[in-house]
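lol forgot to send this yesterday, sorry. struct tokens for the thing we talked abt
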């Protein structure tokens, strides 16, 4: 596995909103990481841009992998995915930098909370995907003797040219 795992301190919550619950790029994708989206559709990209959002998207997964699970299967690393929405610029105090459209429901705001995380980043290539990265991240947790704070893993996807970069975050108990 060719992944560089880091310990990362996230100093502010990253905020996410759903533009249109009936239309997102993950609707047709399997959320267990086996079939991961690689590109943002032009329709979604237009809606995201019109709303003043950053274009990044966040999916929260549960993981069944812990110290008691000595031989996890690939499906156990990322399961029960829940799409959280598209990133919105925010200030260090948590206030929002852009004016949101009136029809956007801010009650559905989700976040990647500030804190200490095990972190890995890659792009979607033939031999790299979030499940393999989640496995590498877990092995680093074991090696470094980091205690997971919970059973959640966050998948953050960012458009980068003609491809999509993914990042995984798993909170470390401090």
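and heres what i got for the seq, position by position
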């Amino acid at each position: 596995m060719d992944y560089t795992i880091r310990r990362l301190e996230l100093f502010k919550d990253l905020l996410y909103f759903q533009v249109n619950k009936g239309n997102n790029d993950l609707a047709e994708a399997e959320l267990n990481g086996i079939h991961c989206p690689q590109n943002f559709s032009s329709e979604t990209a237009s809606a995201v841009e019109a709303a003043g959002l950053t274009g990044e998207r966040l999916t929260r997964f549960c993981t069944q992998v812990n110290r008691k699970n000595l031989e996890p299967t690939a499906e156990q690393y990322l399961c029960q995915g829940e799409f959280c929405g598209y990133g919105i610029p925010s200030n260090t105090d948590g206030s929002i930098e852009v004016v949101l459209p009136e029809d956007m429901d801010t009650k559905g705001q989700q976040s990647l909370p500030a804190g200490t995380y095990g972190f890995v980043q890659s792009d979607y290539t033939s031999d790299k995907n979030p499940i393999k990265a989640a496995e590498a991240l877990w092995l680093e947790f074991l090696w470094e003797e980091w205690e997971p704070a919970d059973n959640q893993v966050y998948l953050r996807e960012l458009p980068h040219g003609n491809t999509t970069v993914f990042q995984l975050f798993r909170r470390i108990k401090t």
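The chain is about 15% helix and 35% strand. anyway ping me if u want another try
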